[in-house]
Amino acid sequence: MTSTFKPINPNDVKAVTCLGAGPIGAGWAAYFLAHGYTVTSYIHSLDEEPALRLLIENAWISLKQLGLSEGASLDNLTCTNNLKEAVSTADFIQESVPENIDLKQGVYAQLGDLAPTNVVIASSTSGLSMTDIQAHCATPLRTVVGHPFNPPYLLPLVEIVKGDQTAPEAVEWLVEFYKIAGKAPLVLRKEIPGFIATRLQEAIWREALHMVDNDEATVEEIDFAITNGPGPRWALMGPCLTFHNGGGEGGMAYNLDQFGPALKLPWTRLEAPELTKSLRNKMVDGCIREASDNDYITLSRARDEGLVAIQNALKNCKLPLT
Amino acid sequence: MTSTFKPINPNDVKAVTCLGAGPIGAGWAAYFLAHGYTVTSYIHSLDEEPALRLLIENAWISLKQLGLSEGASLDNLTCTNNLKEAVSTADFIQESVPENIDLKQGVYAQLGDLAPTNVVIASSTSGLSMTDIQAHCATPLRTVVGHPFNPPYLLPLVEIVKGDQTAPEAVEWLVEFYKIAGKAPLVLRKEIPGFIATRLQEAIWREALHMVDNDEATVEEIDFAITNGPGPRWALMGPCLTFHNGGGEGGMAYNLDQFGPALKLPWTRLEAPELTKSLRNKMVDGCIREASDNDYITLSRARDEGLVAIQNALKNCKLPLT
After folding, report:
1. Could A224 and B198 be called an inter-chain contact, meaning their C-beta atoms sit closer than 8 Å?
2. Does residue A319 carry a pLDDT above 60?
3. What is the pTM of this model?
């Protein structure tokens, strides 16, 4: 079957089809539009179009601040609820339908027949495995996980994971295409649950829940500690290079040889806490307090402004060093 | 003894004494100088003075970029190896001697007698408890942990923890003083090992070590995933508000009610991995590769430039919302 998979040069991609009308599907559509592609958004029902366009217009504010590509325009967007029409002329497909394995398998069964076999299909799934998603797809060679970080129009990371039936050429193609499109692709060495970034997020999240559960810190105090402490270092260097630098002249070697034994100290709790009603309410109430009762849109605008500011600020910084 | 503890108005602090010639002690000295204070640096031996001044001059580059206070000058620094002289006229003392309990207890025994009893003494310790540190101090009421994040001249967080003998008034005073001096103080509700930010750092660190140990990701891939993914969100919002926002209109409540059960999935490994020679070398080699063989000073300059850029960028952003 590898012989039937002849993708076009990723530099020649012009038409991108995005499946899904939620924040991820809309975020991808906005991103590709801003990078000069023609975008077709497949939506389940045409009733979803106004909400989709609102999300895209909101993303556009930030994308303009970061700089649009030549020819980029919201006019290059078409919405359709006809799947065949949506994918038949696509050069690349980014699927972001809800995280439900039955639903995804059904969509890939259809896509496998409707989308030209030389077209790579990437799934935005954050938790499902491509091996499962591609199970009922007749042309699974070109199906790959391409998991973005929210919001996909501002955070560059895309984690790439193959399924059992995925062709290595599809992975290579996707890496090259995402790079051309300005993303930061990361190919996983193994198909591990949660991939890399979400697993690391989950680790911090569990310890945060324990702290709130034990009344050692509130939601606001945890966020205050991170944003004023390690957060900016993580945005800039990540956890490993931060500790390498923190080790002074001796770097990571000094750190590990000196503080290695501290690893075994019970500084973080091991298992996830029971999500009791009380813990649930402490988390929820704390977040509402911290957001000062502002709604989702207001909070998202503030987030986007901050992320644009960080991204623009780091454009002229020397990290990663070469 | 509370009756003998009459601190001056934190607004009237003019003379700050910093103990310690390492990156933390020097970082604090630079920070207070940049905020217009007169600083005395106590160093163990006068031989350490040139290295201390180099660290302070390096910090000064960034502090100037962030904006110096009126009257701020490197000329307001005095170095001495006479502890009595260093603390007898201080309005506030920030101690950053090496993390060794015997050493700290000895220093606090001396400080307890030499420093005027109305002067608050804050310890930069990241891992020791003030209850232990103040054990042999004759005037322990005014001794408090004031743990900064590295570099202390750029990251605002200071975690404040009392010991068993610390007066509540000393904690209140220290919070007010740090705020006046432009820091972001956070008082811990309980004396927990690692405080808040370091425990959260440790959680992410353990999972990162597991990934490297299992060849699921390299050092560079982990840092790449964080800096291009959740890192900028953590710098801006912290982990809780990020998930509140990620829940869409439904916020944290939607997230927990929907995804709560996923907490029990084995997404992060529970115990810390064995720090084998092989794991140690993978971490060390990966960091050296990632730093492209650049030395500590070059890497620190790049870090400082990035942190200044992030901090300046976020000055005009609306988070936290009010």
Report:
1. no
2. no
3. 0.88
